[in-house]
Amino acid sequence: MSSSNHDDPMKDNQIKRSAEAKTVRKIVAIVLAVVITVIAVVGITGYVYISSALEPVDPDDTTKEKVEIPIGSSVSQIASILEEQNVIKDSRVFRFYVKFKNESGFQAGEYSFTQAMTPEDLIEALKTGKVVKDPLLTVTIPEGKTIEQIADIYSKKTSIKKEEFMKQVNDPEYIESLIEKHPLILSEAILDPEIRTPLEGYLFAATYDFYEEDPSVKTIVEKMINKTEKVLEPYIANMKDRGLSVHEGVTMASLVENEAKTKADRQKIAEVFYNRLEEGMPLQTDPTVLYALGEHKDRVLYEDLEVESPYNTYHVKDLPIGPISNFAENAVEATVNPTDSNNLYFLAASDGTIYYSETLDEHNRKKNKYIN
């Protein structure tokens, strides 16, 4: 009998070649995928870097710096001078931007530039020989103001209606975009449905210069949040050391702002608040009652203390759900650096003096002496 089970060398070679071809195709596909990914990542990273490099060094810093541009300076030399003076972020990007825009005819001279200027502002100034643009609008936002009060101030200084301002700062999509843009200070905590206005407390008290007559609400808000971020950044690590999130730190700073005016008293009151939280006691601070009521009153009545609100610190045994106003920087300092004490109570006399106590008995004695 003969057997037909002999191996077919040709068939084996075909199978082998087919397997090798598959392997080669897989390797080529993987290499292509890696190359495309690398190109995409480099492209995106480059775009992000260039976009960032073309933004002002600090949109809020309008301090004028003298910058000398010598006669005969090339664009490359001018770009280097501007980077050295910290007026632009990257001299190469600025140089390429000038070339891309086909700009030329820059004039020598002594300029006054600010870190708030955009590349367009700088190019325009260098072409015309103009020193620096004067602000077309200056608005001062005091400490201890709510967003409604801030909206009111801008409505008097610009053509923006208060309702328009409030609508923008309550727009969920807009708030989400700000959280993405400012993750250092803004978090999902501000989206809690019980929070009255998400950006309450995050629009810093300062004087703002605008280089357009009628800035949009978004331009205003962005400028104010940039300022808040700049002020808060040095204190964030200290907040975390105290077990506070940025949102809680900002909330505490707003309470301290509303309870005292001097730095020393703010530090003492911050410690009283921490001591009460540690003891599981409600903070019982009247400004939170007024915020919960949504009105200003010269005197908080006993019936007011009953208002059920996550802002009312007679009602909740913790920090309120969010800030009740903006604040000065020394209120933030007090929040992270309170004066060490065992005080659990304080009261303000009619002359503005604040008295502190460790016990309720001592507190009541001082109340009878200085208040009643």
UniProtKB/TrEMBL annotation:
Listed transmembrane segments: 27-50
Reaction catalysed by this enzyme: a peptidoglycan chain = a peptidoglycan chain with N-acetyl-1,6-anhydromuramyl-[peptide] at the reducing end + a peptidoglycan chain with N-acetylglucosamine at the non-reducing end
Keyword Chaperone listed: no
Feature type site, description Important for catalytic activity: 259
Keyword Kinase among UniProt keywords: no
Membrane topology type: Single-pass membrane protein
Protein purpose: Functions as a peptidoglycan terminase that cleaves nascent peptidoglycan strands endolytically to terminate their elongation.
PANTHER family in UniProt: ENDOLYTIC MUREIN TRANSGLYCOSYLASE
HAMAP family hit by this protein: MltG
Protein's recorded name: Endolytic murein transglycosylase
The organism of origin for this protein: Pontibacillus chungwhensis BH030062
Taxonomic classification: Bacteria, Bacillati, Bacillota, Bacilli, Bacillales
